[in-house]
Amino acid sequence: MRLKKINILALALALTLLLTACEEMVLPFGPDAAEDSTPAGTDGTDTGVPDTTPSGGLSGEGYTRADGVFSVNYNPGGSFDPLTGTDYYNEQLFGLLYEGLFSLTPDLKPEPVLCESFETADGITYDITLRQNARFHDGSLLTPHDVVYSLNTARRSGKYSSRLEDISSVSEGGENAVVIKLKSVNYMFPSLLDVPIIKDPAAVTRSTAGDSTTGDSTTGDTAAGTDESGQEGTEPSSGPLGTGPYMMSGGRLLAFTSHRDYTPDSPQVIYLKEVADGDLADSFADRSIDFLGYDPTGNDKLNIHMVHETRYYDTSDLVYLGFNCKGGPTRDMYVRQALTRLVNLDVICSDIYENAARRSVFVLSPALGLVSDLQEAGYGYSRQNFTRLALIAGLEDRDGDGFLDYFGDQMVLRLVVNSENSGKVEAAQRIVTDMQNMGINVQLLSMSFSNYKKALQRGEFDMYLAEVRLKADFDLGVLFYGNLNYGGINGSEYRTLVNDFLSAPDEASRADAALALDLHAAEDAGLVPIGYKRRAVLTHVGVVTGLDPSQSSLYRNVLNWKIDLENRD
């Protein structure tokens, strides 16, 4: 199921799981490249912004009367197995039902969840102590066996295999501990461990009586909340047992009263409602559903004619312009350096992507806070710097036709883009316009996904516009010497720089390694980072306070939310 393509009408809507690919597959192409199945919508936010003035502001016009219950969209026919399921809507709910050893904060840093503490002396062996008070929805305690089962199952799944490919082994480390060994040093590894932990199905006691010590049951009969809406929910396909703050009960989610963070003030019931793709905007406008996870930069647009709140969060989805480093004029580093100064990041991110992409002069995300604005000086968009660098690169108009030649030879550059993503096409058109205005003859080739992919694989381009979902440890090797290095970037030095970044044991050394990697990539100019995408959560005005989404979960800290449905009237 996908959202239907319509336009956003939002006064301040500041602008993707790649459902065609698994969550951890990194692809620079496709209709919604890098929109892979992010755990639970999951994807940094504008911090420090009070809920009464959300980051995206208020949008639309008019109000309608509420239906009295807090409802979200789901697909009852889709999978609820968090290790294999890729249904767009159900994945957004996984953060309610399941938890990982870690979760990402809004600034993309790992925070412990089911992990009580961890130690690593070398960045290879991780000794993880589990929370002793974490329970599954049947009342049973989380065990090391369940964690080992979950991670090994995830390693074999298409959804998580790429993310966890550097794991050498996962084993029980004692009464309440797990040992994970890696193939190489990575002090950023906890960022990858927001993988949902489930109870080993073989160990599940098939009883609906529940754990008498907790008062909870697999059916949710004694969980918090009762159905007072008169609505009948469709019973979804059941998923494995999780430890999340909510548990499934028919067409609703009930607060799990044995969750360590549960309080009587926590939201008690979240209702599930199946809404057809084309009816999402209307259902949100008439308040039949109250919460929408949304990718403003994707093909699927929402046309919401009412005032609403929009909150954005950072992701590891990078939009970038790649160069052919093996043939044509762009094989010349000086030519590439000149061309990078004609990619107007501000216009693309603010106007075309409507601020739903965080501009990034350097290749590592600015959301990480490792490199300062001052260190970016001289590397961004600048016609003056282009003119200077063009002379060094031998770009001159020697025949008087208005276009720059490359050492006297006519130069026509081919920029390929996937025609199935309107935002990327518009961004590519802007790049072409800016380059042509400065005398670069560029031919834009907008093609179907399949043809675009073939062009990349065959090297039939000088430039290409792409998007990739990087792993949350920001291992850039996939771009510089991995299977997405379509431009033929010389990856020898990048290997050292990427390894230095991942093996930095503390924040100070990581910042130094990040700057070295960023500067080398900027000078080499094998690709031009444009921006890291930001996704959005839409709610009605004043209904939800405490909402603080991240790439790991749209429902981060949900038990601390305050939901005031009266504000909808």
Structural write-up:
By secondary structure, this protein is of the alpha+beta class. The protein is globular, with a radius of gyration of 24 Å. Helix 10 packs antiparallel against helix 11. The two termini are 31 Å apart. The protein contains 11 helices and 22 strands. It has a domain at 316-534: Dipeptide-binding Protein, Domain 3 (Dipeptide-binding Protein, domain 3, Roll). The protein has helices spanning 88-97, 144-156, 280-285, 333-340, 345-352, 383-392, 422-437, 449-458, 477-480, 492-502, 507-524, and strands at residues 58-59, 71-73, 102-104, 110-112, 115-119, 125-130, 167-174, 177-182, 246-249, 252-255, 269-273, 291-294, 308-323, 357-359, 395-396, 405-406, 412-418, 441-447, 463-469, 527-540, 544-545, 562-563. Strands 1, 12, 13, 14, 17, 18, 19 and 20 form an 8-stranded mixed β-sheet that branches. Strands 2-11-10-9 form a 4-stranded mixed β-sheet, covered by helices on one side.
Features of this protein?
disordered N terminus, Dipeptide-binding Protein, domain 3, alpha+beta, globular, 8-stranded mixed β-sheet, 569 residues, 4-stranded mixed β-sheet
Mean pLDDT: 85
The third-level CATH topology of the domain at 316-534 is: Dipeptide-binding Protein, domain 3
CATH domain class name of the domain at 316-534:
Alpha Beta
End-to-end separation: 31 Å
Can you give me a brief rundown of this structure?
With 569 residues, the protein is of the alpha+beta class. It has helices at residues 88-97, 144-156, 280-285, 333-340, 345-352, 383-392, 422-437, 449-458, 477-480, 492-502, 507-524; strands spanning 58-59, 71-73, 102-104, 110-112, 115-119, 125-130, 167-174, 177-182, 246-249, 252-255, 269-273, 291-294, 308-323, 357-359, 395-396, 405-406, 412-418, 441-447, 463-469, 527-540, 544-545, 562-563.
